[in-house]
Amino acid sequence: MTILSGRKIRKVYGKKSTAQEVLKGIDMEVQEGEFVGIMGPSGSGKTTLLNVLASIDKATEGVIEISGHDLRTMKERELSNFRREQLGFIFQDYNLLDTLTVKENILLPLSISNISKKEAEARFKEITKTLGIDDLANKYPNEVSGGQKQRTSAARALISNPSVVFADEPTGALDSKAATALLSNLEKINRDKKVTIMMVTHDAVAASFCSRVLFLKDGQLYTELYKGEKDRLRFYQEIMSTQSVLGGDGYDA
Amino acid sequence: MTLSQLVLRSMKKNIKHYYLYFFALIFSVTLYFSFVTLQYNPSVVDVSQGVKVAAGLKAASYILLFVVVFFVLYANLLFMKRRSKEIGLYQLIGMSKGLVTRLLVLENTILWVSALAIGVGLGFLTSRVFGMVLLRILEKDVLVQLIFSVEALQMTIFVFLVLLIVVLIQTAIGIRRVSLLALFTANATADVKVKRFSGLQMFLGFIGLLLIGYGYYLSTTLFELESDNPNVLFYKMIAILVSTIGGTFFVFRFSVAFILNLIRKQKRGHLSIQDVLSLTPIMHRMKSNAMSLTTITVISATALGILCLSYISYYSAGSTAKLNIPFDYIIMNDQGEGFIELLNEKKIEYTQTDIELLNVEVDTSAIYANDMPAGLNMVTKGPMIITKLSDMQKEMPGLSLKEGEGYITGYSSMMSEIVKLEENKPVELTTSNGEESITIKEIRSDSLLVYYVTGAGMSIVVTDEQFDKLKADAMISEQTIWSKQIGIDLAESAQLKEVQAIYEETTNNGHFEVTKDDGTIDSVNMDTQEAYRLSMLDMFGLVIFVTGFLGLAFLMTTGSILYFKQMTEAEEEKASYTVLRKIGFTTNELMKGIYKKQLFNFGVPLVIGLAHSYFAVKSGWMLFGTELVAPLLITMGVYVILYSIFAFLSIGYYRKVVNESL
After folding, report:
1. Superfamily designation of domain A2-246
2. Contacts B281 to A, Cβ<8 Å
3. Is this complex scored with an ipTM above 0.95?
4. Closest by Cα among A243, A185, A233 to A39
């Protein structure tokens, strides 16, 4: 089942004279339960695409539908509610509120929903257990490690049982061990709970956890790779070779 | 790019940051210049007793200067903090600290010169308004000229030049302090250091509440002195100040976080979005905000208290005059016949109230309540004025007495604060045939006797039979100097001025005298009620003007500082707003939490300040006037309204930040 679809997405920044076209008509579809990676050199429009798909930014042209909702027809308020109830977000710099404890941060998206405290508590327990942060509940973000912060951020993204989780460079600020732990967690959640995940990354290792990787170049879809039945190492090598063709962001090796 | 180009460009880019600082400067210059101009305005100086007004204004201008210095230095400090990143960046690209300093010196000088020019222009206009307000308060009908005083200009330029130099030094020190390392960690240090709340803090928070309560309790019993040490009053005042100010600090530093932490704990992690935006940031900012909130609260409480007291004096001028001189005009012992004849002749309508008086030696020791302060040597036996019931009933129809009963009148609120009297106790009147006992039925604060006769003390009302008996006593009539007080009330208050002249003419400026049998002369100089009121206005009008002006300055500065702080806070929290809006909270949902937060940030200092000044005023208002409720409510009401404006401004700023955060 298609959960997210975009048709001819264009995004132009600036006024007429200084206009810069960042997305130049992108078509894409994401099936339910997919783990999609978006890669591309700096300035190719990865983050812009993610923001536009996630309704944080408005597309200049094009149609975006997420589980049957057309984002264009929705008002500011509806979009906010939609984001809160249907989408989850993980950011590179965690974006946790420093003044809230880990538990308070995670429960934040539920704060104005009708979900009962009991239900919220149950979800909280389950998610923190899956992510291995169940003993941090009463700590403040500055008391835990970067990897733990990012897992907190992931837990916050998942607590509302979203249809799609958007992750923008979630491993960007983590060391490789913490990054692998986080990605394994995401992969597991994706597999076991059928949560659809879209992840922007420039790290080929991170991308190799995905089931499909889209490559952007100059605001256009360049190519895409499916993992299929390949193991992670093979997939990683494929990604690397595509990246070297693409130029820019890859490691020159 | 030359230095001046860089300066102009950075000023253009920074205009958003500047306008706050610029506004603060213009405001200070305007206030100072207009106030100093007022001192040199001939129409203001000439109108009253010249020297007094000028001296009063001069003294006030020093206090104003203090406010201005405090305000400008604080604004500059905030301004520097906001720009620390920019300053660091200049150094990162290789500019020396000296060059950066020169850059900022140039910027500041441009800013100050233009603020000075605008401020002087505005001050020139506002000083006339202030002058008109002053003369209106003094009830003088004089046209205030619009004058430009060169002396005032010189004074203002001098003061602000010196202040500029101080600010430049402050800036230079600030630049020296900025290290490049701090640039990279700037955000991390600006962020709230989140800490856990310990048991000790909770205890201290509780102590804070107790301290304030104790201070308030002391203030209500300020004049109940148990010891005969005259310094006790002073010690008590110090104790009140220390416990309320200390308590205020503790409340801000510990109690607030303590209470909020309790609420938060109860929620077990399930915070509403409003809590997230109000409860938690307030809790965590309290440590750094406690000092400034305490200062602001104490300053506004002081300003408000002084403002209330001077307004009470001013507001009470009429009623104080009426209390001391109960009738428009008073003549004694039939010595003003000429006055009454002339009134009749000119067909001016009036009512006349005759009251017969007797001087009797009275022992009042029995009516004093037991807990009379030992240090106060109250004379309980001495001559008092006695009046008769039927005379008093003309103006106070509610009175009625049985035989052997009497009223005490003229027990003022000031007196009641210091000595407590008890009703249904006897007083002893000394007659030539021994003592005559009268039971006091009621103790009343109102009086119909002019204070020149009673010496602002109490008098006694007795039944007509009793009065006649006393009057027949040779010893008493020997003691009695003034046997009759005639009070004249005009029907038309518009004629007060005209009649004043007649009064002065016919009674030799209110001079009455009696030659006793032994040849000594007893005399009294009587004021009319209106003349008394005007002299009160002269005295307190200047006080209310100066305190009102300074109070306004205090209010504006504390309000602005709170507002500036909130602007900075809003910007620091912008990142949180971005997160929350990305996650899917609407602007309105966020704003609801911010309303709560601002209600707290402005409301708590306001409420504590109001409570402080209420207790301060309550403890000593009777020394200043006779009316409490109306002036207190009016002053506090105006204060609350002006203060709320700042709160709304800050909310507007928050809305802008939240809107821009996504």
Report:
1. P-loop containing nucleotide triphosphate hydrolases (3.40.50.300)
2. 99
3. no
4. A243
